[in-house]
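Operator note (shift B, R.M.): manual run for RWD domain containing 2B requested after the automated queue skipped it. Running by hand, logging everything below so the morning shift can see what happened. Input copied straight from the record, untouched. If output looks odd, do not overwrite the archive copy; leave it for review.
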Amino acid sequence: MSYLEWAESQLAEIELLTSMFPTLDELELTDQLALAELRDYVESSASADSPPPSRPQFLIKQKLDCANTETEVILSCAYPSEYPSVLPEITVRCSSLSRAQQTELQTHLNAYLTENCQGEVCVLSAVDWVKDNLQVFINKSLFTAPVSKKEPASSQPQEVFSRLWIYSHHIYNKSKRKNILEWSKELCLSGFSMPGKPGIVCVEGPQSACEEFWSRVKVLTWKKIMIRHREDIPLDRQGEDSRTVESIDSLRKFTGFEEAMFDPHGNRGNHMDLGQLYQFLNEKGCCDVFQIYFGIEGR
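Run finished. Output pasted below as returned.
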């Protein structure tokens, strides 16, 4: 598909969503300028060799009857330039769920979309899936609530370890590269960044710190950037001696954060040796992510 065909599919889906969710309480377009630019891009007769200048983002708000209580759930959606050939970025928020349960719901939703909706517009499918499955996760919340009341009154939020695998069309800009290094160290995240084309960033550590890092990075100006894969591990499992089985540091696969270069080559020195990247990932015990990034098995 071309950028124009992707943009046409995106605009058609937004118009369908607008007709189905006509009020601001149901659908909120958080960037009207991006929508106007998308429409102008589709309606322009000029050839489209590059993507639209900005990405449409919107919120879908639903009030569902769960456990005899009205529950609000919000789906935050953003279109990558190549959607629907790649999946949209969809984040689900629901105040009736703990952070870990929201993470579990998110993981199941992503798996469903990957298996059933690759290459097709799928926001409505995501909304329907959440409607059909939210009750299951709320039931889990209700089931575990009495147990939590018996715990000591420390009332600390559940800790979650996260590892985000971020993909960018390219990372050249020295200022962005500096931000990535400084923010990761500020937030005590480990991992690495690989500049060039494509650009890869991996951060790992407390989920809240990973989310803060992503919230800063994604608002910079990019041709394309997305979370290609994420890993979330709740740290609420207890051993026989009532100590947490795992800790944040024990789950890290990287020591500190570094900018990694793998034999830069090409006219601008902006391409890395992917074979060396695979070996690097393999040494860290995460070579499976190579296929997620590039669609092929490394060697």
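Quick read of the result: The radius of gyration is 21 Å. The chain has two domains: 3-143, 160-235+248-294.
Leaving this for review. - R.M.
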